[in-house]
Amino acid sequence: MDNNKEITPIESDFPTITPAVQRMAEFVQFVRWYAIPLDYRDPKTQKEFAVQIGVNQDTLSDWKRHPQFQFLVLRLVNQWVVDRVPDVIGSLYDSAMVGGKVGVIKTFLQLAGVLENNKSNK
Fold it and tell me: Would you tell me how many other CB atoms lie within 10 Å of the CB of residue 103?
């Protein structure tokens, strides 16, 4: 075994959260749930989610005021969007091929770098 290998630290999706949260696992679950767009959430409501994780709904409202809550949510929202880019491009391609709408085709060609995105192309 080579003892000279570099160790790569594993980074958490969630940096150290201060001020401390009493029920960290549930807080993280809430952040992850809240970062999902409304139409894709299960359960659908904050009240139902509170019951599911075993906390009072008021606790969730308090957690939303945590200084790092929005930062953590936005970080996960960004990842959610990035993860779906290939599917959106595929859908755009399908729409361009089937529907043949000029706006969809233009958007696809702009993404491909074939068509410049400027006012003269309108």
Answer: 10
